[in-house]
Amino acid sequence: MLAQKATIVASLCALFLALIKFIVGMLSSSVAVLASAIDSLMDFVISIFNFLALKKSSQKANENYNFGFSKIEALMGLVEGFFIVCVGAFIFYQSIMKIYHKEEILDLNLSIFVMIFALIITALLVIFLEFVAKKTKSLIVQSDCLHYKSDFLTNLCTLVALVLIYFTNLYIIDSVFGILISLYIAFSAFKIIKKAINFLMDKALEKEVIDQIATLIKAHQQIITFHDLKTRKSPQLNYLSVHLVFSPDILLIKAHEIADTLEQDIRKQFQDQRWEFQIHLDPYDDFEEERTKQ
User: Fold this and answer.
1) Which of 97, 121, 144, 271 has the fewest CB atoms within 10 Å distance of its CB?
2) Which domains does the chain have, with CATH numbers?
3) pLDDT average, residue stretch 38-64
């Protein structure tokens, strides 16, 4: 699958750049380059998540795991997010210490060279991902492409900072930029953590989506009312359960056809998302009964 191959290529490029930047950052004592290395490491993590999302979406649940394995991705995201926050904090600490001890970059030319190299690789990767996104129409690849465009700008800013140091000899620029990138990394990692927690806690879909679903249900005149509308989201699927109330004299086959039509309406309304439905057909409104039992 081309989309999966694209995420693998993106992951390998991000890991390669992270290793190169980390080595050069250590050799040159540039916290800006080290911070950029952590940013590339975060890119690698995100691309791995995207690959897992594409891979897992093709796997079905089994008799032991009836709802599939999507929460593994959320759990990994939580762990990796906390790891990246810790590394960002380390870069922040190193930047502060470098300002305090007034340390200089040991090899500025090497640092500039590696950032130029990173810019070229990232630009080629963006071009490749744009090609794959247009061909496959994959939203995951499109989001990956958008992410690496922002990474290209981050690399460019790092390069500009190093060039400024080259012409001004103001080495504090390196530390200041290291602090800025470390804060950006921590903020981005917190967004990953928040998203992972939402998946693990079975957070409901957005209110706008639920309102649109309610409107689609009300559009069917045979449905008298509905209750117990519940939703949750996994990295690959939206889950929806609802009780539909029909007239007691309606044929079961007719009520079932209406429920199937409703499912098709929802899939059509949200074509870019995958759904799993659990629709209960009621011959009368038993909402108060169910609430009393619960």
Assistant:
1) 271
2) 2-200 (1.20.1510.10), 207-293 (3.30.70.1350)
3) 72
